[in-house]
């Protein structure tokens, strides 16, 4: 028995070796290949990076979906030099920007160690792995010195922190940098305002990009990768915002106030605020905006206008009345520039912290009366727009009419000592600047690398807090120097941080990626004329609404100007507000009405206009319209009328115009209601009577509340009042009543 057992062991050992060793040998290369990859995962996703520096897989665990194009030749990281800086490299390669891709990646705990082709840099990226996202932050750059050649540590101009070839999906939100459909969302989100976020479209995929710029900040800046379901996306972003101490853009978008439309005051004072509030209430507005130009002389120091003799006390009276009426006060500001009539510019010594677009050197001495300035170098290409030709030489401001492009290089037709500055003599060799006057041109943009923006922000923060404002419009957001992706949100952030309490929501004129967390309601558009309101909205507002919805954000369907009819315009009419408000509701968006008090007073249809706005605003906030109805409303070519039935329920009716804009003064639209043909009509600019060649027993007339209006007769004709909106009902077919209406219309004045 013992011998048999002793014999069996060698036989068994031989069998095990001969059977399993080949499989083991085959498996080892696969295991080694897997081990050579870097795997980073959390509860939602699994990211695999090959050891040669490329992202090879991103799995959404809940669905098992592969989110990357796995064979794309896209390095995860790369270094860019604006020219080769290494001695041997600049001898090899031409003087132009060159990118050095990652060619080796290793993971050590919660750090990635990344090497690059043809450079000696080693990037250390810190990982922050949570259940909601994975954070990537550049912590340091190490450098190896090669033991031959002329070597030194070389500069880095840009570094691509993350590049991911993400499969295309149904939706891509360019602002938020998110690719999503109903199942999965992939978002590469900047965690700091100093991170440059972008995306580059390819035929099969979109390269999501997070990068850093040495002119802004390289270290301790980063991005967060989110891979989750559509339903969880905002929860994950909210977690990033809180962990990285960012503005709470998700929380703002989820507030009940987020959908509130606003009435923007014009020329408001303590004497007329009550009348403004009354109009705002008729329009169903729950918020009111004060434009700073009504109380401040100029942007910069925001000194009080003469209409506000008591300063802050007068402004507080206005905002307190707004709050007492049950509405939220907000403020519309310029903040990244200073007005030419502000003490920053016109106090005799112009501030040197404004931005400039060109710099020059005097090639000859300049006395205090010369109208010609001779300079070093060709000034070709300097600004020639009226109002933007402004030079600062020490403490003197000078305008010019023209310049020469052949030696001697000169500015000609100069006016010395403008904006209260003093003409002076200047030495040869004096440096001076062409100031960055904005394109209105009423303002000079400020240098964001100085403390002037903080000074302006502190003044605005004080006004915001003391007046009791709760939201803000960042106007003129485009008025910052390059790089725009950074300075747009940087300047907004400086002001935003001074506003206490934190704004409920904000809007702005220009968006950068980090601004998603600040400008939770996107932007408004500048006003369009009444006659062009529909084509303008189709071209801009509606396209923007569809686009920005992919960023989980609304757009302001304003600013909507309020104009009464006059000899130059038909004015804003009820159907125009019907169109604007219906499309805003379709996209879950607010509108904004510019409250020109005199126009509101003079427009014969103000009551109708405001009733339309209020009807849509109440329907939106009550959530009475279904998703299916909202999809119908999104059609830019189909217009809808919103009314209440006898039970007070909201009803939508598709309708179309049967008169033309030049067929003054009657405006009419046709629709079907309960099997009957209806025409809603009104007098555009006054009152009168409408005569139709139809017997009155074939017609019924009522107002929008359903109250019957008597119809007079004149033989076989019917005489209808023409003033505010009325609804004419008949059993006649649509085409027949349209023909009769258009053929027989007659105004009795």
Automatic annotation (TrEMBL):
- In Swiss-Prot or TrEMBL terms, this protein is called Uncharacterized protein
């Amino acid at each position: 028995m013992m011998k048999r057992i002793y014999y069996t062991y060698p036989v068994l050992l031989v069998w095990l070796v001969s059977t399993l060793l080949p499989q083991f040998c085959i498996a080892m290369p696969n295991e080694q290949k897997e081990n050579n990859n870097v795997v980073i995962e959390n509860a939602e996703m699994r990211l695999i990076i090959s050891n040669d520096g490329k992202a090879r897989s991103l799995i959404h665990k809940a669905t098992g979906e592969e989110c990357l194009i796995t064979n794309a030749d896209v390095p995860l990281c790369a270094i860019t030099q604006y020219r080769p800086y290494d001695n041997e490299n600049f001898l090899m390669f031409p003087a132009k920007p060159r990118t050095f891709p990652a060619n080796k990646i290793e993971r050590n705990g919660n750090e990635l160690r990344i090497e690059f082709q043809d450079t000696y840099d080693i990037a250390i990226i810190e990982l922050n792995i949570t259940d909601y996202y994975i954070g990537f932050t550049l912590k340091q750059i190490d450098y190896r010195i090669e033991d031959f050649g002329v070597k030194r540590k070389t500069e880095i101009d840009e570094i691509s922190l993350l590049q991911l070839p993400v499969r295309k999906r149904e939706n891509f939100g360019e602002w938020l940098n998110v690719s999503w459909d109903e199942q999965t969302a992939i978002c590469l989100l900047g965690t700091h305002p100093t991170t440059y976020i972008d995306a580059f479209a390819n035929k099969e995929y979109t390269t999501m990009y997070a990068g850093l710029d040495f002119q802004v900040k390289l270290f301790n800046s980063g991005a967060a990768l989110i891979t989750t379901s559509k339903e969880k996306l905002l929860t994950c972003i909210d977690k990033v915002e809180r962990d990285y101490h960012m503005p709470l853009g998700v929380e703002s978008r989820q507030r009940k106030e987020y959908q509130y439309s606003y009435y923007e005051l014009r020329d408001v004072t303590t004497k007329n605020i009550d009348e403004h509030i009354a109009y705002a209430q008729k329009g169903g507005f729950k918020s009111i905006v004060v434009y700073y130009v009504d109380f401040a002389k100029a942007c910069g120091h925001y000194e009080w206008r003469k209409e506000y003799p008591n300063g802050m006390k007068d402004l507080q009276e206005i905002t307190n009345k707004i709050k007492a009426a049950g509405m939220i006060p907000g403020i519309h500001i310029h903040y990244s520039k200073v007005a030419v009539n502000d003490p920053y510019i016109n106090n005799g010594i112009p501030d040197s912290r404004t931005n400039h677009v060109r710099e020059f050197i005097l090639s000859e001495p300049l006395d205090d009366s010369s109208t010609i300035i001779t300079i070093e170098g060709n000034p070709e290409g300097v600004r020639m727009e009226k109002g933007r030709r402004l030079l600062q030489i020490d403490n003197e401001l000078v305008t010019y009419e023209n310049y020469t492009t052949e030696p001697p290089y000169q500015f000609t037709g100069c006016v010395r000592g403008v904006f209260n500055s003093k003409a002076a003599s200047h030495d040869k060799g004096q440096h001076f600047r062409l100031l960055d006057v904005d394109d209105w041109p009423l303002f000079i943009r400020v240098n964001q690398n100085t403390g002037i923006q903080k000074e302006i922000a502190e003044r605005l923060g004080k006004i915001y807090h003391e007046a009791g404002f709760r939201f803000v419009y960042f106007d003129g957001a485009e008025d910052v120097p390059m790089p725009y992706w950074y300075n747009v949100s940087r300047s907004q952030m400086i002001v935003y941080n001074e506003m206490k309490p934190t704004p409920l929501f904000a809007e702005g004129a220009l968006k950068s990626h980090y601004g998603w967390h600040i400008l939770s309601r996107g932007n408004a558009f500048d006003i369009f004329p009444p006659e062009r309101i529909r084509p303008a909205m189709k071209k801009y507002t509606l396209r923007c609404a569809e686009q920005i919805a992919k960023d989980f954000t609304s757009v302001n369907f304003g600013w909507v100007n309020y104009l009464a009819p006059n000899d130059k315009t038909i004015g804003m009419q009820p159907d125009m507000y019907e169109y604007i408000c219906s499309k805003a509701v379709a996209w879950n968006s607010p509108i904004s009405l510019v409250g020109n008090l005199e126009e509101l007073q003079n427009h014969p249809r103000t009551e109708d206009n405001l009733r339309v706005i209020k009807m849509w605003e109440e329907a939106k906030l009550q959530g009475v319209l279904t998703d299916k109805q909202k999809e119908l409303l999104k059609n830019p070519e189909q217009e809808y009328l919103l009314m209440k039935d006898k039970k007070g329920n909201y009803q939508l009716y598709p309708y179309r115009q049967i008169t033309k804009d030049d067929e003054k003064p009657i405006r009419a639209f046709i629709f079907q209601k309960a099997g009957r043909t209806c025409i809603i009509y009104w007098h555009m600019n006054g009152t009168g009577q409408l005569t139709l060649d139809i017997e009155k027993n074939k017609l019924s007339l009522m107002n929008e509340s359903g109250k019957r209006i008597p119809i007079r007769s004149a033989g076989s004709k019917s005489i209808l009042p023409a003033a505010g909106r009325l609804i004419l009902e008949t059993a006649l077919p649509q085409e027949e009543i349209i023909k009769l209406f258009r053929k027989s219309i007659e105004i009795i004045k």
